[in-house]
Specification:
This protein is mostly helical. Helix 1 runs antiparallel to helix 2. 91% of the residues lie in helices and 0% in strands.
C-alpha cells in the first residue's frame, strides 16, 4: 500500500517560509511605526510644555523680550518638527499597511495549499478505504470459491 504524499509539499514549505519572513517584516514595520509615534508624542509634549512655560512667564509679569523671542522660536521649531514627524509617522504607517497586505497575501497562499493538501489527503483516505474494501471482497470471494470446490 502506498503512503500519502502531497505533491506540492516543497512549494508549501517555501510559502510557509515566505509567510514567516513577511510576518517578521511586518513586526519590524510595526516596531518602527510605534517608535516614530512615540517620538511624535514626545515632541508634542515638549511643545505643550514650552507653551505652558511661555504662558507662565508672560503672566508672571516680570519678563524680557529676548526670553519670549527665544521661547517663541523654540515653539516654532517644535511646531515644524511636529509636522515633519507626523509625515514620518504617516510614511511608516503606509509601509506597515502595505506590508500587512503582503503578509495577508502570503497567508492566503499558505492556507490555500494547506486546504489542497487536506483535500488530497481526504481523497487518499477514500481511495485507501476503497482498496481495503476491494481487497476484503476479493479475499472473501476467493475463500468462498475455495470452500465450494
Amino acid at each position: 500500500m502506498r503512503r500519502f504524499r502531497f505533491t506540492l509539499e516543497s512549494v508549501l514549505l517555501v510559502k510557509e517560509k515566505n509567510l514567516e519572513e513577511e510576518r517578521i517584516k511586518l513586526a519590524r514595520f510595526l516596531n518602527a511605526y510605534n517608535k516614530e509615534k512615540e517620538i511624535l508624542d514626545n515632541i508634542i509634549q515638549n511643545f505643550k510644555k514650552i507653551q505652558k512655560q511661555a504662558d507662565d512667564y508672560i503672566t508672571g509679569g516680570d519678563f524680557s523680550v529676548d526670553t519670549i523671542t527665544i521661547l517663541k522660536s523654540y515653539a516654532l521649531k517644535l511646531s515644524q518638527d511636529i509636522e515633519k514627524q507626523k509625515q514620518t509617522v504617516q510614511d511608516f504607517l503606509n509601509q506597515y499597511l502595505n506590508q500587512q497586505k503582503i503578509a495577508n497575501q502570503a497567508y492566503i497562499e499558505v492556507k490555500t495549499l494547506e486546504k489542497l493538501k487536506e483535500k488530497q489527503k481526504e481523497n487518499y483516505n477514500k481511495e485507501l478505504i476503497q482498496e481495503e474494501f476491494k481487497l476484503t471482497d476479493d479475499l472473501i470471494t476467493s475463500r468462498f470459491k475455495n470452500s465450494t470446490n
